[in-house]
Amino acid sequence: MTRRALLALALSTALAGGRSHPAAAQQVVFAAGLPTEIDSATQAALTRELEQARLRGLPVEPLVAKVREGRIKRAAPSRIRSAVAALAVRLDSARAALGVASSAAELVAGADALGAGANAEALRAVRAASGARDVAAPLGALAQLVATGMPARRATQLVVELLRHATAPDQLLAFGVAVEADVGAGVPAEESARFRLRAIEEARLLGGDKATLGATVDFSNTLPTVQNARPRRKP
Fold first, then answer.
1. Residue partners of 38: CB distance under 8 A and separation at least 6
2. Is 216 helix (H, G, I), strand (E, B) or coil?
3. Quick check: 61 and 25 in contact, CB under 8 A?
4. Cα 48 to Cα 19, 22, 34, 41, 184, distances in angstroms
5. In sequence order, which residues have a C-beta less than 8 Å from that of residue 221 and are 6 or more positions away?
């Protein structure tokens, strides 16, 4: 499963307000289940992996999605099994960092951030700065920032700073996506982040106008201007 797909799954779960439920997870594994074209040996191994994840209280939906992704990409069975096992490890690590009461969306976003290059310390810092708030969106922003090549410590500082200013979840996500788009257009991550932080602060002072967050910044002049352009997607 790609980082964007994992983030989308985390956000959709967060918006629905859902948490991982063992019965629902079991239904995903054994009813919706694994693609039928997988050979029996791989099917059995993956079913064991998913069942173990379910018993540990981990969300299995992203693991099943990882299997389907592997089939779409025509990956070898061994690579699919390795990818699923690695994702399960990241989900476990995310729960260890974020707490056992974390929602499925938070664990998926945490695993996504870890996969992008963040560490457990970064996840704990985001959790601490969020208080009682859901951390799926902040962790999604963290994953986006780290994926641009920004050092994990700096990315964590930016997300924590935004959380301390009570930045809304949609603004946090827009921030991460916008920085990633700017980097794709050739803007240094740190320079883009500073501009986007100013945009958020100005939006806060002006009553919430977020128009500049989703545009690509043109740094060709001394003073940055904004070009209306869609964020570039990674392949």
1. 46, 67, 71, 77, 80
2. strand
3. yes
4. 22, 15, 12, 11, 40
5. none
pTM tops 0.90: no
CA quadruple 76, 77, 83, 85: dihedral, nearest 10: -160
Mean pLDDT of the residues in the chain: 80
Give the pLDDT confidence of 58-101 residue by residue, as tens digits.
999 999 999 989 888 888 988 999 999 999 999 999 999 999 99
Tell me the torsion sign for CA atoms 64, 70, 75, 79: negative
* Distance between first and last Cα of the chain: 13
More confident residue, 131 or 224: 131
How confident is the model at residue 228, as a pLDDT?
Answer: 36
State how far the alpha carbon of 82 is from the alpha carbons of 28, 44, 45, 206, 217, in Å.
20, 14, 11, 49, 39
Cβ atoms within 10 A of the Cβ of 204, count? 16
DSSP-derived pairing of the beta strands 225-227 and 216-218: antiparallel
Residue 213: per-residue pLDDT = 54
Q: In this structure, are residues 43 and 34 in contact, taking their beta carbons and an 8 Å threshold?
A: yes
131: left (phi over 0), alpha (psi -120 to 50) or beta: left
